[in-house]
Design a protein that fits this description.
binds 2-acetamido-2-deoxy-beta-D-glucopyranose, alpha/beta, 7-stranded mixed beta sheet, 7 strands
Length: about 375
């Protein structure tokens, strides 16, 4: 009698603790949120100055982050503050920063802005550690690296960061022919394609074109209407956005002309730069491999600091709707338990990763991303 009661009591304890354990596991698994985000650098100067830019920007380096761009990332860092990053004193815990960054100067400057916003009390220590562990691998000048490490990062825009280079950079520049020479042939093929030639003519027949061309001509008087292409208009519009963000009132474009140029941007991003399978493989292999590692890894937050080209390469296969990333834009995979959702600028996107378009499972997402991972990128790119 005693022994069976005893056995029963033990059994009850085992059952209750098993149930509790299963329930507890389920709760923590469900509640656990993971974020994997892709952040674009902030506002910059135009990459190449035309005569008008030369007057407006004077000695400011082309393609560099501006003070306003720095502030954008600082604000983004501030709005990213969550308990996860901090110890009891409110200092960021270095080990929690699972960040990767392009070493193009405007991205490194953006990164610093972000960390200053995220870790107001100990950004200097965090940045020194990060330069030591991450950026130093890509430094080509020991003296400049030391100078940076000894600085207090209160005036980071004084460093030009030109001495940092990634030799093999498919994670940030897989879309570029400097990494994948084969892309030059693809570009050539697209530019000679009848579909492209027709589209180019079609854009130039549109009434908005005359306004755009006039403004282009004010920026560079030696431009000839016959030689204007989608590519040139895209570059011009990119520069316009830089000038606009900086507060310059030139060039001037009506809203209609801006909408027209948005269409050109979309055509260039989605029908030229990210339309062929080799372009997808080259631009996405390492990025998607990184995402899969983050999905399977232990980090709660993983951040990637890069370029609009990276976000567009992803968007071109992840969603139907063509989007244009503004400065400091954010594309995020948010994972809750087993479910994954994609957000752009904090708005939920319908994706192509599974039939239901939202709430895809981790398994579905990984399987979808794997389609764009090439096992022999070097051969494909003819390196
Ligand atoms: C101005 O346009 C001409 C003709 O397209 C081009 O050759 C030249 O490089 C342009 N100048 C600048 C500074 O962009
Ligand atoms: C997506 O998943 C969330 C959390 O699991 C759930 O609350 C929501 O209702 C789901 N939405 C749809 C449309 O299934």
């Amino acid at each position: 009698m005693f022994s069976s009661q005893f056995t029963w009591a033990i059994l009850q304890i085992i059952i209750i603790s098993a149930l509790y354990f299963i329930n507890f596991k389920a709760i923590t698994f469900e509640d656990q949120q993971k974020e994997i985000s892709f952040i674009r650098h902030g506002a910059r100067s135009p990459n190449k100055y035309n005569p008008l830019d030369q007057i407006l920007w004077k000695n400011y380096k082309p393609g560099y982050l501006t003070e306003k761009g720095f502030q954008q990332l600082h604000d983004l860092g501030q709005s990213s503050q969550t308990n996860y990053f901090y110890d009891a004193e409110g200092n960021c815990i270095y080990q929690k920063l699972n960040f990767v960054s392009s070493v193009i100067p405007r991205v490194m400057h953006s990164f610093i802005g972000f960390v200053k916003g995220l870790c107001p009390y100990n950004f200097q220590g965090i940045l020194r550690n990060y330069f030591q562990d991450y950026y130093s691998k890509y430094s080509q000048n020991e003296n400049i690296l030391n100078e940076i490490m000894q600085s207090d990062f209160t005036n980071p825009l004084i460093f030009d960061f030109q001495t940092f280079k990634m030799e093999r950079d498919f994670l940030f520049h897989g879309h570029s022919s400097s990494q994948c020479p084969k892309l030059d042939y693809i570009k050539e093929e697209i530019l000679n394609n009848q579909e492209y030639l027709n589209k180019n003519e079609e854009f130039k027949q549109r009434p908005e074109f005359q306004e755009v061309f006039q403004q282009m001509k004010l920026s560079n008087s030696s431009l000839d209407e016959g030689t204007i292409t989608i590519n040139k208009m895209k570059t011009f519009y990119g520069g316009f956005k830089c000038n606009r963000y900086q507060g310059f009132d030139k060039p001037v474009l009506s809203l209609n002309a801006q909408k027209y140029l948005d269409e050109i941007f979309i055509y260039k991003f989605y029908k030229m730069d990210n339309s062929r399978s080799i372009q997808h493989f080259s631009a996405l292999t390492e990025i998607f491999q990184w995402i899969i590692n983050q999905i399977q890894g232990d980090h709660t937050i993983s951040l990637y600091f890069g370029h609009d080209s990276n976000q567009v390469a992803m968007l071109s296969v992840l969603v139907e709707e063509p989007l244009i990333p503004p400065f400091a834009s954010k594309l995020s995979f948010i994972i809750q338990g087993e479910y994954v959702n994609l957000y752009f600028q904090n708005e939920l996107l319908e994706t192509r990763m599974c039939r239901s378009k939202i709430n895809c499972t981790r398994g579905q997402v990984i399987k979808y991303l794997e389609q764009y991972i090439s096992k022999n990128l070097n051969e494909l790119c003819q390196i």
